[in-house]
Amino acid sequence: xxxxxxxxxxxxxxxxxxxxxxxxxxxxxxxxxWWQVWKWGGSSSTPNTGKEDTxxxxxxxxxxxxxxxxNDLPNQPTFxxxxxQAKEGSAPAQVAVGKTYFTxxxxxDPDPKEAFRWFKKAADQGHPLGQFNVGVCYDLGLGVKxxxxxxxxxxxTKAADQGVExxxxxxxxxxEAKNDFANALKYYRLAADQGHLGATRKTGELLLAxxxxxRQPGLAAxxxxxxxxxxxxxxxxxxxxLYQKGDGVPQDREQxxxxxxxxxxxxxxxxxxxxxxxxxxxxxxPEDHSLAVKLYRQAAEAGxAPAQVALGNCYTLGEGVSQDHQxxxxxxxxxxxxxxxxxxxxxxxxxxxxxxxxxxxxLAASWFEKAASKGYAKAQYNLxxxxxxxxxxAQDYLMAAKWYRAAxxxxxHNAMCALAxxxxxxxxxxxxxxxxxxxxxxxxxxxxxxxxxxxxxxxxPPAANAPAGPTPAVTAPAP
Length: 479
Hints:
By secondary structure, the chain is mostly helical. It is built from 22 helices and 4 strands. The strands form 2 sheets. A two-stranded antiparallel ribbon has the order 1-4.
């Protein structure tokens, strides 16, 4: 969902606060029959933490013992020399003395309170690394009790505004945790402009999402390209998404594949998955189901749930591999174990259709309900159909209408048609032919032949404006 951690650049006489990162990769699977539709640039995550990794998210993770780097005084003077200079008012010496008290040495026992005292002296003189270290002490409660996140942020801000990169990162993380995306973006961007890889990607993400700023896909692409050019696989995938959609950059399948292959070469499972989709559909590349299966398998074995679903689908349909419903179930279960909605849904389909298991409508309904509760439209439609027909569950028109409406609001055309019929008949809902007409008009406008047939057959009022709501492209529901 690529973990290529990059350690922070060293800076003189500062305490480095290690920041845990999370690598993100969007979920999806290929569209075919009841298959989940892959939405380029969607979002799901597989966590993978590490030192100063290439993605930043959430609040700062506080280490139990952060470590400072070497002081910035020439010729490595003795501690006695440093302390003399520190007492004379040298801010760099004060930071170095604080560092020695913080870590301890052969001749000096660790003393967090003394470390804080000397860092504070340097900070009060405006020394940026002293300010950052004071922030770390307040953040972790080292040498000062209790912890004080507000004071930590105040000192981080002073250091960040003087260009201390890790202070900029900690400011950004803290503001993001507070949902203050404008300030988070400000400090991510400052760190990005100093070359911090994770901050460069994060800046692109926020600009792309329009968080803390109006959405700016072109500028987002610039930042993502910077990170991608340095080998950051998640940025390469996001940039590929932009080229696929023509969002902020000209639509360009060649560039899309270029960045996907670079990420895939670094074993990034989402990139492998998306290239597999391209080969399965012949999108920008020759159609090659065998290669698609190979790439799906690589991503699936790395634990990427959408690829596990896609590989299970290949076994179900016998595309690029011999049909094998048992193997399909194995991969669907692996995805379901990660609560991947498409995996939960696919198990429901298997039990409903008897693919690799005896038909068990009750168990199918249970899996559909799990996927439906996660907002998966096809599962919502199938669960509604089960309630309408009393398959696997007690017949319940009220529940049927509820789930048809949930799927219809997500743009599922079949659900729109089913809901319209219930609205005409007054089953599970108050009869309302006018609303039924609105749903059928909406489905018909999106190309549903069933909706067009119902518009001719059902007694309905004249056309009106369709109800508000998204109308994403969807495929036919499961059998």
